[in-house]
Design a protein that fits this description.
By secondary structure, the chain is mainly α. Helices cover about 55% and strands about 10% of the residues. It contains six helices and two strands; from the N terminus they run αααββααα. The protein has a two-stranded antiparallel ribbon with strand order 1-2. The longest helix has 14 residues. It starts with 8 loop residues before the first helix and ends with a helix.
C-alpha cells in the first residue's frame, strides 16, 4: 500500500474484515482480504491483531502454529475506545470537550445533543 494510513485506520479495516466473516481468520487470511496485491506486510497485520487482542477488540485461539482471530468490537467501538483513552490522560476534560464540540458540524452537534437527551 503506497499511501500512509491514518492512526487507527488499519485497526478499523481489520475489525471490519473480521466482522464480515462467519469464521475466525488467520493473519494471512486477514491480509489477503485487506490487500490481495500482497503489499501489506504480514508482520504489520500480526502486530495490529495482537494490539486489538490486548485491547479486547478481537478474540483469538490457537489453530496449529497460528492464531485465528474473530471480532468482538465494531469499528465505532474502536473509535469510542480511542477517544476514551485520550480523554483519560487529560486532566482538563471540560476544555477538551468544549473544543471538540466547537469543531463539530451543525448536524453532528445536533446528533450529540439528541444522544445526550436519550434515556440510559
Amino acid at each position: 500500500m503506497s499511501t500512509r494510513r491514518r492512526p487507527g485506520q488499519l485497526e478499523t479495516e481489520i475489525v471490519t474484515v473480521l466482522g464480515g466473516v462467519t469464521d475466525p481468520l488467520t493473519p494471512g487470511e486477514v491480509r489477503d482480504l485487506l490487500d490481495p496485491s500482497g503489499q501489506l506486510s504480514y508482520s504489520t497485520v500480526v502486530t495490529t491483531l495482537t494490539r486489538l487482542y490486548e485491547k479486547g477488540a478481537v478474540a483469538r485461539h490457537r489453530d496449529g502454529r497460528a492464531f485465528r482471530y474473530g471480532a468482538l468490537a465494531d469499528p465505532a467501538g474502536l473509535v469510542a475506545d480511542r477517544m476514551t483513552r485520550l480523554m483519560a490522560v487529560e486532566p482538563d476534560r471540560a476544555s477538551v470537550l468544549r473544543r471538540f464540540v466547537s469543531t463539530l458540524s451543525e448536524q453532528d452537534e445536533q446528533l450529540l445533543r439528541d444522544l445526550l437527551r436519550e434515556p440510559d
